[in-house]
Design a protein that fits this description.
alpha/beta, Alpha/beta knot, 5 helices, 7 strands, about 35% helix, about 20% strand
Length: about 150
Amino acid sequence: MQIALFQPDIPQNTGTILRLCACLDVTAHIIEPAGFPVSDRHFRRAGMDYLDQVTIMRHDSWPKFEQWRNDKGYRLILFTTKGASSYLDYRYTAADILLFGRESAGVPEAVVAAADARLVIPIKSGLRSLNVAMAAAMALGEALRQTGSAI
């Protein structure tokens, strides 16, 4: 199980997700361009001293990430407010990459089209979305529970 962040633009959320990955021993992918430098103090503060404990793979672009993913044979599971299926009803495998979009804009259609599944975390009607770090924690928790991969 792995997590990928598509062009993240809020350093605190990225740092929090990387801390989550460190604690649960999950590889994290950052698909560039990110909206902040990795030296950003908010990013470092949110990740605390956990950033040295997480495996981070940086991909220069979406096409380079897709080439890498296809070469490895991983499934891509996109979490989106426009998903048709609940994340609780999906059957995860250890070869899944859970993808979360840019906080301000989500992902472009090319990314949506490339996903093997598009899932939603159901929330109360009339509200837009959960914080991306919260969504990543919920999704990763369910995926690890199902696959028995949790530490």
